[in-house]
Design brief:
The structure holds two protein chains of two kinds. Chain A is α+β, with helices and mostly antiparallel strands. Chain A is built from three helices and five strands; from the N terminus they run ββαβααββ. By secondary structure, chain B is α/β, with parallel strands linked by helices. Classes of the chains: A alpha+beta, B alpha/beta.
Chain lengths: 106, 420
Amino acid sequence: MPELVYVSPSGERRSVQAEPGSSVMQTAIDNLVPGIVGECGGEMSCATCHVYVAEEWFDRLPPISADEEGMLEVTAAEPSKFSRLSCQLRCVQETDGLVVHIPEEQ
Amino acid sequence: MVGMPETIVIVGTGQAGVDTAAALRLAGHRGNIVMIGEEAAPPYSRPPLTKAYLKGEANAADLLLRSEEFYPREKIDLRTGVTAVAIDPSTHEVLLSDGERLRYDRLVLATGGRARRLDRPELAHARNVHTLRNLEDASALRARLVPGARAVILGGGYVGLEIAAVARQAAVEVTVLEAAPRVLARVTSPTVSEFFQRIHGEEGVRIVTNARVDAFVTDASGDVAAVRPAGVAPLIEADFLLVGIGITPRVELAEAAGLHVDDGIVVDELMRTSADDIFAVGDVARHPDPRHGGLRRLESVPSASAQARCVAAALTGGPRVPDAPPWFWSDQYDLKLQAAGLAVGHDRVISRGDPRVGRQLTVLYLRGDVVVAADVVNRPADFAAAKRLIAAGHAVDSRRLADPDVPLKSFIASRVATTA
């Protein structure tokens, strides 16, 4: 199962084994990782699953859709060039070891 | 009791129930959590039932609120396929349909609602009259969506219109009968209603407003064959009927236990019912509205989640959850409607852009110069900005609000600048 590392705003790292095909948002929800809310359940309606992808991983992820880009403009925490909505990121073999940073607020 | 392990029983395994269990564990509750769900299926998300699931783009496994491993890992005793039949507040017990008497220290009622049905004797034996509330309903309806089928949808609310959109995309002929003078009348302004009526018309849906049904014509087997509207309008032939006229909160358990019930289970700002140690959350809970006063029942996933966090904080002695304006969403065709706040008690409506053309719209509701609610279609940036404006509740320069070229976000920024 692909490993996934969540880094809290205070720098605490939490590693979980993700269900293959599950999203980074859903994996956080299933593992009670605080700071990722996912109010709309992954329908790109809320921008409450915002994460900053670790720099070395960013270019290895699928591209950002127009809808996601729109929602990334309006996250509660200031977006960076490494911002993604975690509901749009699937945990697969290629993402084994992926590191995402959780913002201060959603 | 705070700090002592205790047994919390949650009746209902929808969004509010499951989020309550999760929020309790996140808040540090170490005692037992028992969840009672009458459906056999593991807890699932309802919004996709009228969207991706109905379209066939998602299956039941995609709808799970949490993975099946979540419950044992978090030591949540999830019992599905069993019903709570009575509560005894004096002995702190819930009686289950399998005969067990379950003792609780605290009880959370998340019983939700049931789809309102038509009380018409001629429909007593009809097998082609559908409502949509649960997975079984959605599966049954999905089987009806074949090209050329003729659907009559009673009710032009979110559910009726979402189903109309999916049905059209499946090449079903759709007629929507709405009793009010416009669709979405209960939840939005005439401007937004007009926008959605236009879009549905362009997509080939026939919408009849101010509709009254004189009779349902049934065939020899008792199934609905046609709907006879009031007046001189011709018969509308139907292969099936979908009744989307809202939900009724499921208050029977609470009522029988002597709790205060009035269109929902009445709770205070911490989601406490009138009985000691019993709380209510989600669609069934009627709670004080901090923004508009009075009591209100919200049928919204984000509100259910917020209430779950609120009740978990109350039960674990945690800090109070800050109030946030409620919000809702609806997907129809390529349109994503996002609504924040409640369009009540406003004295002005401002449209950014023209609702008579295109597939984007932003409508803001103001009291004085304060934005109190917003309906936004396909403009996520406007939605998120509006949500923050509503939460902040401060006055804005409303003369510039109508200009779609001025980003809504700038109204938040200008506030920061003036206070800095």
